[in-house]
From TrEMBL:
<dbReference type="GO" id="GO:0043565">
    <property type="term" value="F:sequence-specific DNA binding"/>
</dbReference>
<keyword id="KW-0238">DNA-binding</keyword>
<dbReference type="InterPro" id="IPR036388">
    <property type="entry name" value="WH-like_DNA-bd_sf"/>
</dbReference>
<dbReference type="Pfam" id="PF00126">
    <property type="entry name" value="HTH_1"/>
</dbReference>
<dbReference type="InterPro" id="IPR005119">
    <property type="entry name" value="LysR_subst-bd"/>
</dbReference>
<protein>
    <submittedName>
        <fullName>LysR family transcriptional regulator</fullName>
    </submittedName>
</protein>
<feature type="domain" description="HTH lysR-type">
    <location>
        <begin position="5"/>
        <end position="62"/>
    </location>
</feature>
<keyword id="KW-0804">Transcription</keyword>
<dbReference type="InterPro" id="IPR000847">
    <property type="entry name" value="LysR_HTH_N"/>
</dbReference>
<comment type="similarity">
    <text>Belongs to the LysR transcriptional regulatory family.</text>
</comment>
<dbReference type="GO" id="GO:0006351">
    <property type="term" value="P:DNA-templated transcription"/>
</dbReference>
<dbReference type="GO" id="GO:0003700">
    <property type="term" value="F:DNA-binding transcription factor activity"/>
</dbReference>
<dbReference type="InterPro" id="IPR058163">
    <property type="entry name" value="LysR-type_TF_proteobact-type"/>
</dbReference>
<dbReference type="InterPro" id="IPR036390">
    <property type="entry name" value="WH_DNA-bd_sf"/>
</dbReference>
<dbReference type="Pfam" id="PF03466">
    <property type="entry name" value="LysR_substrate"/>
</dbReference>
<keyword id="KW-0805">Transcription regulation</keyword>
Amino acid sequence: MRQLPSLNTLRVFEEVARHRSFSQAALSLNVTQGAVSRQIKQLEDYLGVALFVRTPQGLSLTETGIRLSPQLAQAFDHIENALQAVRVPNLRQRLRVVVPPTWGTRWLSTHLRTFCERYPDISLSVTNTSAHDSLAEVDCIIRWGLEADSHCSSQLLVMERHIAVASPELFIDGQPPDVRTLPLLHILHDGKRLKVWENWLTAMGRDDVDAARGLEFSTLDQVIHTAVAGGGLAVIDRQMIEKELANASLLPITPVEVIGPYGYWLNVAHDKQGLSKVRLFTEWLGLVSNP
C-alpha cells in the first residue's frame, strides 16, 4: 500500500508554490487561508522539513520546496492526462437516461421542465434504447417490471395504478358504459396481452365479463388514442393519462384503482452512483414521482 499524504494536501502545496502566497492559494482553491496553512503544516510534518520561508520580499520556497514543486506539477499533469484519456468525451455534464417509450413521452416529458429549471448545467439526453456505442455512456435506466434488479442499484419509483376509462361520448345520461357490450382494448408486451383487464375485473368482483374479447395493440399510445376516439374501453395506468383525465377526454368508469403488480424502477450501475448528476436526478425523480 502506498504511503502518501492526501492528494488534497499536495494540491494545496502546488497552489501555494505557484502563487508564492497562502492567501492567493486559498482564493484559487475556494478555501480559507487557515485551511491552506494547516495543509502545508501537515505536509511539512510528514516530510520532516520546511517547504516555505517568509522573507522581506514575501513567501519563498526552501531548497526542499524548490526540488519538490516541479516534480509534483509533473505528477499532476500525468494524472490529468490519464483521466482525460479514459473520460467519455463531452459527457461531463450530460445525463443520459434510457426510458420506456410511453413512460418517457407521457410522464417524463411532462415533468422535465422542473428538472431543467432546477439544474440548468445538466444537459439531459433521453432515449428509449440501450444500444449505445458504449454502455459507459448510460447513466440511468428507467425500467418497467415486477421487482428490483439485483445487478445494480435498483429502486422503485412508483407502482402502476390502473383504472378503467372510456370516452365521454360512451356515457349515456351520465351513466358509464357497460363493459359487457363494448370492445375491450388490450396492450401487448413481448407479444402477450398484459392481464390488466383480468386484474381490474377481479378487483371489481365481476365474473360476467369475457376478458379475452376485444382489440389488442402493440403500444399503450395506440390503446389511449383508440379509447379517446370512442373505439372501446381501456384499463390504463392513470399516471399515463394525466392529461386526458384533466381535460376529460377520458373518464373513469368507476373510481376503483388496481395497484401494481408492475411498477417503474430506477436502475443505476454501481460505478455511476457517486456521480452528482445521477444523485440530483434520483432525488428529483423521487420528489416528482411521490409528490
